[in-house]
Amino acid sequence: METSQEETVNTLVEDFDKPQLLDLFFSPRKFFSKTIVEGKNLYLKLVTFIVSVAVAMDRIDQEMIKTIGGRQSTIVSLIDTWWAYWAFCLVMGLIGSFFIWYWGGWWYRKRLVFSGADSPDPYKSRYIYIYASFIHSAPSIIIALIYTAGYKNYIDAFNNDIYLGLTVILFLFISLITSYIGARTVFVLSKWKARVWLIILPALFYLLVMGTLSFLFSKVNAEQYISNKIVPNNRMITSTDGLYKIKLPDSWDVLKDINNDASIQIGNLDEDLYCIVFSENKQGLDSGVTIDDFNNAVINGSMSALQNASSKNLPPLPNIKFNHRRTLIEGVIENNEITYIIQVTEAKDYFYQIISYAPKSNADKLLPMFDRITISFNEL
């Protein structure tokens, strides 16, 4: 069954002093079909160093994730400039090259044995491992260089970029395919054992790690917005300025850092539903400002922050004693469709803006909840 593969392995060409990296990315079988000659050529040392630098970058990312949960990190505190970031990565890359080559290569050789290889050559095993790892290590370094040109430091880049970082994940899975092709080109392996040990199990491991990190990241990211304010049994909460109360809906939490100018911030993070309230003293406004004037200013300001914004007036609620105006606004912000429901309420000395919002896909849950909140509004 392995005759064709044995023929491929036995027809390797001895020409590997200057590996063609384009072949590694676009024609890995051609790349690995050349004899891996014993020797300490400069290319292999450089590629091992690059892989080790990428491992150091990954370590920084792990430390960055820890800080999101409020933990302190010595490493993160040391990389507040790009000079410090690159110094750390290059030094750790130099030190780590030894461990990447010997220990990483040792485990890769073990996987080749599990895949059916008969006493695979340690040097050839490590060679395949290093060059397959280069598939995802090189893009990591290129992206870090792009970050260096576009952000003030790595912390800023980590907090603000998503899409470039995700491309590394794509190359991570491509490297598994490259590893499999390289191993079956150089060694005689069992096809299915090789697929299990070189593709399936590593891919499942990566998916498990990414899923776990994604869950922890979302959980930590959500918890940082939940206030530690104690909610009374009747769920009536008082605004931070002490002017009014509203009833907190079941399954909703008192939040923080959504908008620090708001005197109440509440929401359901799991369902992506939010409500914030602002108090505006009439003494700070021009004399003669009516509720319609104030409402128009609020609506115009809200719509100006959206793309493709549209609005429609909602009928007033009959069981609210305050004079009020209600408006539904839809639009796009940062490529996300969003729905706002805004109620401007007039009291003797204040105008109140009660603003609830959610993704448009979840907006059907918003209006009933918003009505319950606004009906519970009571000035103190």
- Number of distinct beta strands: 10
Give me the number of helical elements: 12
Order of helices and strands: HHHHHHHHHHEEEEEHEEEEHE
Query: Largest sheet, order of strands side by side?
Result: 3-4-5-9-8-7-6
- Which class best fits the helix and strand makeup? alpha+beta
Distance between the termini: 84 Å
The low-confidence parts are none
Strand content: 15-25%
Give the C-alpha Rg: 30 Å
Overall pLDDT score? 84
Number of domains: 2
Largest sheet: 7 strands, antiparallel
Level of helix content? 40-55%
Please provide a brief summary of the model.
The chain is of the alpha+beta class. It is built from twelve helices and ten strands. It has helices at residues 3-10, 21-26, 28-32, 42-68, 74-78, 82-114, 122-150, 154-160, 163-186, 191-223, 291-304, 366-376; strands spanning 236-238, 244-247, 253-254, 264-268, 273-281, 307-314, 323-333, 336-346, 350-359, 378-379.
